[in-house]
Amino acid sequence: MITLHHLNFSRSTRALWLLEELGIEYELVEHKRDQNFRAPPSLSAVHPLGKAPVIVDDGLILAESGTILRYLEQKYGDGRLVPAPGTPDRAVHDEWLDFVESSAALPVMLTLLGGMTGGLPEGLKAFTSPELSKTLGYISDRVTDRTYLMGDRLTLADIQMSYLLAALGRTGQLDAYPAVAEYLDRLEETPGLRKAIEKGGPMAPPDRA
């Protein structure tokens, strides 16, 4: 049986969502953030990085949510959450899947860290603000007139995208991007994510900063 090590208010909701979406049997091990919003030492006993998500499957230990999503889909999925291999749609899908934790993550996480620490230094803010605007504009253009990133079909890329948008939404960063906010609403209405949140809690703290 798969074991998922889950941290509250974290990226590991993505893995929990996919497990629910695919109907895979799993054991959920929950870890709680401390008073400083840091991951507890118990996660370091599971993986050297001390972060979540981490899955254990037949002795294989994997971290990094994108890797976990790909692994679970390839081993246990039925192909309904990815376009067919070798097609242009698959290439576009994989670009979006990788975009989340590469190009998008830097301005998003800097913005969120700034909000948690009293604000970014002016030089860093001058870099981060236009990059965040570019990132959210790019996502907005994609999801305008589309239900999901790849059209009417939920994919791994949507699951991967969910955490960053949920974290931005709680701080009001999506207010100027209604298409992105509506896209996040659609993701949060999916049965798989609703089940994941019921079991593991919301992706981000509910109160706006």
Automatic annotation (TrEMBL):
This is glutathione transferase. Gene3D superfamilies: 1.20.1050.10, Glutaredoxin (3.40.30.10). Residues 86-206 form the GST C-terminal domain. The keyword Magnesium does not apply. Coiled coil: none annotated. InterPro entries: Glutathione-S-Trfase_C-like, Glutathione-S-Trfase_C_sf, Glutathione_S-Trfase, Glutathione_S-Trfase_N, GST_C, Thioredoxin-like_sf. One of its GO terms (cellular component) is cytoplasm. The lineage of its organism: Bacteria, Pseudomonadati, Pseudomonadota, Alphaproteobacteria, Sphingomonadales.
